[in-house]
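Q: What would this chain look like folded?
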Amino acid sequence: MHRSHEIHFRSSAGAILAALALSTIPAVMAQSTSAPEWSLVTITTIKPDTRSEYEAWQKEITAAYKKAEVPSRAVLQTVMGNLLEYVSVSPLTHFGNLDGPSPIERALGKEDAAGLMRKGSAYVTSVQRLASRALDDMSIRTKTSEPSEYALVTSMHLIAGKESEFNAWMKNEYLPAMKKAEVKNFWVSQTMFGGDPNERIMVRVMKNMAEFDAGPVLNKALGEEGARKLRAKSAGIVDSVHFSVLHYRTDLSYDMITQAGQKTASAK
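A: My prediction, written as structure tokens:
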């Protein structure tokens, strides 16, 4: 049986899984509009009284990734949904990379890497890792120098066997409406491993939370009635829709491409 059509806020592995798997959220877009085809997404739930320790540990993890020369690592914190949940994202260039030592082990050595991971186990209650594939033919990517620290994450669960209908609806109806609303960055991905392959994740990058005050972007493009009709066309294709909001933590993240571009610009 299909789940009843519903719309509400949630923040779980199923909703966020590939939240930022299409790219990292800072002003990365100032340097490139491309995104890795595959990304690794790790969803972590922390113990309520360990937030400070967990974030300090995340800084150590990020430093190790940077030392191992992983191009980027984004850490995001849920601000609408499960407030104990964090999401980290790094690009996956080749699945074969997973056959060798982890970035942490490459940076610190086997013994120290194991010690660092044991340290983190004291702060978390659950960890899930997923592989996500970017769907660029359904996405909007625009270069911008403006930092964007938030993302509205929409998770749509497809009815089994309705992938082609969803693709047509997205490309012919939804995406044109987002472009008409002048949305600059709208990224779509599909979870392939570690989650539900019938789930599609849409990420709309936002400069700040005040953008919500302007109302739904589809209303801006189509009017309230037009937006309602557009959503109605997903009936029989999508059986549930969920929303969450994530905050990009610049203090826990990095992007080598962006940083290199900034250094080049400042040197001119």
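The domain at 7-267 is CATH 3.30.70.100 (Alpha-Beta Plaits).
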